[in-house]
Design a protein that fits this description.
single chain; 454 residues; alpha+beta; conserved putative lor/sdh protein from methanococcus maripaludis s2 fold; Elongation Factor Tu (Ef-tu), domain 3; OB fold (Dihydrolipoamide Acetyltransferase, E2P); 4 domains; six-stranded antiparallel beta barrel; four-stranded antiparallel sheet; 23 strands; rod-shaped
């Protein structure tokens, strides 16, 4: 036992004499002392209480709402068209003498546009008038012949009566054998000739109404040819049927026109309208307003002037490639008139909607949700969006409606990144249409001062 103990001690003395073992022992000692100091500090340190976290309030701008009747505004692009475009043609063949207008020129009703040569047309008219005179004279002659024949009828009848009486006398004498057969045949022949003459005369008198009707028709036909020639002569002067711009001129002096050829195209200024495409919801509202005779108006700027328009009709079908119906707006003024084909930026104003509320665009969340401020916290409300609204300052706001919004309610007009019901907010000065931009600037400055992560 003593021998074993002495051997163990001897081995320990040998290990302690090695340098590596001595350094390891020193490190372990230092680590033990440090650990003891840390435990002593924790055990003897003061007992601290956790700090209470303060909820941050998000600064927001607000506005007081007041439901009332407001008119929704729809923004759309429309193209100017003319629903009356006249293609002035001619049915005659004549050389073009003079062209008095050019494309784009404004003309008035009755203005001379193109003049054709009239020499051939005047000669044709004079020939037709001469034919009318000849046929009229023939009609008068026939009527004179009728009057003469009617006046001679009694004489023809008298001659026939005399001839018949003479035949009867000679027939009595012939039966008494006092007259030769040859002489009796001669008397009988004379009586027959007078009877035939009388019947011929009567047939001629009876036929006079037919001859007169025939000549009257010939006179009427001649008169129609005269009128046609006069129309052809009038067509040698191409005049404007209404006020409007000249769209195109298709002839030049020296050209010869043909039957049905187009000479000039002109648009009717009173038929100018603007065609635009509106969505299904908007078109349904417009159709309802038209049925109820409630005006739907629009306005647009043209060369520094305000153009006023009014809805007249909606198309009956959705065209291929479109998402809505075509709406047609007529101009309510004749000056200034936009150019045909020009694209206009329309601001369409629908009739007022009851209990509508106009809000800035940034008040709307997810297209159908707003937040009301109650006791310093947000309360989310679903709303019905009924259109846009154009303020007097030219800003576009949204028009909404909700049964849960009443006059005096405060709605935030700030877009918060994490808006949710119950979020604590600090209301900034309430805004309206006049101080809206100032409030947004103040809100931006206040937001920049918030601590990071609040």
């Amino acid at each position: 036992m003593n021998t074993a103990t002495q051997g163990f001690r001897s081995r320990l003395q040998n290990l302690s004499r090695r340098p590596g073992v001595r350094r390891a022992g020193l490190g372990i000692g230092i680590l033990a002392v440090g650990l003891a100091l840390v435990i002593a500090l924790i055990a003897t340190g003061p007992k601290g209480t956790p700090a209470e976290r303060i909820e941050k309030a998000w600064p927001v701008s607000t506005m007081i709402v007041e439901p009332r009747a407001l008119s929704p505004t729809i923004t759309a692009f429309g193209r100017v068209e003319a629903n009356h475009i006249a293609k002035l043609r001619t049915t005659i063949s004549a050389p073009v003498k003079e062209v008095l207008v050019k494309e784009g020129q404004w003309v008035h009703a009755g203005d001379l546009l193109v003049a054709l040569e009239q020499v051939e047309l005047r000669l044709l008219l004079e020939g037709r008038e001469a034919e009318l005179k000849r046929r009229t004279a023939l009609l008068r002659s026939i009527r004179n012949d009728q009057a003469l024949a009617e006046s001679l009828t009694s004489h023809e009848e008298e001659l026939n009566r005399i001839a018949q009486e003479k035949l009867e006398r000679h027939e009595e004498i012939f039966r008494k054998k006092m007259l030769s057969e040859a002489l009796f045949d001669e008397v009988r022949q004379q009586a027959s000739e007078r009877f035939i003459a009388l019947q011929s005369h009567r047939a001629r008198v009876k036929d006079f109404p037919n001859q007169i009707a025939q000549h009257e028709a010939m006179v009427e036909q001649a008169r129609i040819t005269v009128e046609r020639a006069a129309i052809d002569l009038a067509q040698s002067r191409i005049v404007a049927p209404f006020d409007g711009p000249v769209l195109s001129v298709l002839v030049a002096p020296g050209d010869r026109t043909t039957n049905g050829s187009t000479l000039v195209e002109i648009a009717d200024a009173s038929g100018f309208e603007v065609r635009t495409t509106v969505t299904g919801d908007a078109s349904a509202l417009m159709r309802q307003h038209l049925a109820n005779h409630r005006p739907v108006v629009a306005r647009s700027g043209v060369n520094g002037h305000t153009l006023l328009l009014e809805l007249t009709r909606l198309s009956g079908n959705v065209k291929s490639g479109q998402s809505g119906l075509d709406a047609f707006f007529a101009l309510t003024q004749t000056s200034p008139l936009p150019d045909i084909g020009r694209v206009l930026d329309l601001q369409i104003t629908l009739p007022p909607e009851p209990r509508a509320i106009a809000l800035p665009v940034q008040s709307l969340y997810e297209n159908d949700r707003v937040y009301r401020v109650e006791a310093g916290r947000l309360v989310g409300l679903d709303v019905e969006r009924i259109g846009d609204f154009l303020t007097q300052d030219g800003e576009y706001w949204v028009l909404v409606r909700s049964s849960k919004l009443a006059a005096g309610h405060s709605i935030i007009t700030t877009q918060l990144p994490r808006a949710i019901s119950g979020l604590k907010v600090e209301a900034m000065p309430q805004i309206n249409q006049t101080n809206h931009n100032i409030s947004r600037t103040a809100l931006a400055e206040r937001t920049e001062k918030l601590p990071a992560g609040s």
